[in-house]
Specification:
It is a single chain. By secondary structure, the chain is of the alpha+beta class. The chain is about 25% helix and about 45% strand. Strands 1, 2, 3, 4, 5, 6, 7, 8 and 9 form a nine-stranded mixed sheet that branches. Strand 3 and strand 4 (about 45-50) form a beta hairpin. The radius of gyration is 15 Å and the shape is globular. It starts with a strand and ends with a helix.
Amino acid sequence: MEIKSQFEYLGKIAKSHWVEDDPSKDFPTGEKLDGVHSFCFYNDKMVVVLNKKGMWTPPGGYIEIGETYEDASIREVKEESNMKVLYQKCLGYQDVTDEDGKNRSRQVRMFCVVEPHGDFKDDPDGDITEIKLIDPKDFRETVGWGEIGDRILELSLKEKNNYGTNKRN
């Protein structure tokens, strides 16, 4: 499935194209995947983090040079929430461009099952000020990523149900 939309971010319009496929597919040689956000579940709750811009979001950030998006997901979840990733799966990617279509960013979206390492103290980068566990039904009101966010949450909940079923078998 593909979804195209646009959103306002820091006073500018951005265009977004969601694709449920391998994030490396049809990606220009020499470019790198820019970021990853992980839709993390601890028991029946979803992990969200408050960034210093005052926005709630799933844990995530930049993919460092030489790092896979899977490794970046594990690192960012640990840094931003002090949670350990027990299981993860790539759900797809989102290409985001500015209004002119000149600046492009490819961002991977992951599903994760997590457990706490301990209490959250602080994010090493200082970007995250708070974490909370929410009921997934409150995602839209808390995070507000629109139609694409709704679709990623839907896929995450399916994965969560599959994970729970497979874990019991």
